């Protein structure tokens, strides 16, 4: 079994609410720990994450401990950058054993070629402002200046302030753009499946060339994706167990 989850946005809500989101995710991961072999975090685990050479933000410490336990049990964890949490250095890899990936990634499980991405490179949730912000946030010079010139607490607080001001409901245009991009990938590459987050709208879309799944968002809906040898499943955690929302057989893609 392989798990995919995204958009936890730890730190967006109050400290108490954020702790509840984190605890629910840990409970879900532990409920699947015996059967799961791999875990993929498809971005925006944190609402803002700025790692410095000698210290990291405090949010998500319990989740980090859980991820360390997964990798210690030889269950690989792969973390794709989101548009809210791209400023990683080496902590996740060096201390937790978590592979951090900046861009799209291809995974292979149960004979499936799986294209993984957060989705922000395909469509911005904030129009041209979001596109401009993404370019700045990924520019090495801008990142170095931000880390160097601002005290850590100020830098993180500023990033969180901007993130909260930009928060809004799922954008139908972004949802359509991600689906359209996924279908294009299915028809033009060897991928059997495409998985993304970013839109905050959980989705399972079947196409003759394969399947597109969006993990939705954890912090509001507790949705995630589960892959078993014969089925894809869009799931929701209810606090005690996971229930399927929609399922589809694994696809062999185009002949």
Automatic annotation (TrEMBL):
For this protein, the record's CDD domains field holds:
MPP_YbbF-LpxH
Matches recorded under InterPro entries? Calcineurin-like_PHP (IPR004843), LpxH-like (IPR043461), Metallo-depent_PP-like (IPR029052)
Annotated GO molecular function terms are:
metal ion binding; UDP-2,3-diacylglucosamine hydrolase activity
An example of a Pfam family matching this protein is Metallophos
Q: Where is the signal peptide?
A: none
Query: Which keywords annotate this record?
Result: Cell inner membrane, Cell membrane, Hydrolase, Manganese, Membrane, Metal-binding
Span of domain Calcineurin-like phosphoesterase: 2-201
Query: What is any one GO biological process for this UniProt entry?
Result: lipid A biosynthetic process
What's one GO-annotated cellular component?
Answer: membrane
**Gene3D superfamilies the UniProt entry points to:** 3.60.21.10
Q: Which PANTHER family match?
A: UDP-2,3-DIACYLGLUCOSAMINE HYDROLASE, UDP-2,3-DIACYLGLUCOSAMINE HYDROLASE-RELATED
Q: What is this protein called?
A: UDP-2,3-diacylglucosamine hydrolase
What lineage does the source organism belong to?
Bacteria, Pseudomonadati, Rhodothermota, Rhodothermia, Rhodothermales
């Amino acid at each position: 079994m392989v798990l995919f989850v995204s958009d936890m946005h730890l730190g967006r809500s109050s400290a108490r609410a954020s702790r509840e989101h984190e605890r629910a995710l840990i409970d879900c991961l532990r409920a699947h720990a015996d059967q799961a072999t791999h875990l993929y975090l498809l971005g925006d685990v944190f609402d803002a994450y700025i790692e410095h050479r000698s210290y990291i933000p405090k949010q998500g410490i319990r989740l980090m401990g859980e991820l360390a336990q997964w990798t210690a049990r030889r269950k690989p964890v792969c973390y794709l950058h989101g548009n809210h949490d791209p400023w990683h250095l080496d902590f996740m890899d060096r201390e937790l054993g978590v592979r951090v990936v900046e861009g799209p990634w291809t995974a292979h499980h149960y004979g499936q070629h799986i294209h993984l991405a957060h989705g922000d490179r395909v469509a911005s949730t904030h129009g041209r402002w979001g596109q401009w912000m993404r370019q700045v946030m990924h520019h090495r010079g801008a990142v170095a200046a931000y880390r160097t010139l601002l005290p850590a607490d100020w830098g993180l607080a500023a990033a969180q302030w901007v993130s909260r001001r930009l928060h809004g409901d799922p954008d139908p245009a972004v949802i359509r753009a991600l689906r359209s991009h996924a279908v294009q990938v299915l028809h033009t590459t060897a991928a059997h499946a495409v998985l993304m987050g970013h839109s905050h709208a959980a989705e399972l879309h079947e196409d003759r060339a394969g399947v597109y799944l969006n993990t939705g968002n954890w912090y509001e809906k507790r949705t995630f994706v589960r892959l078993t040898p014969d089925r894809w499943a869009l799931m929701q955690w209810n606090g005690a167990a996971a229930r399927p929302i929609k399922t589809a057989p694994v696809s062999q893609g185009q002949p």
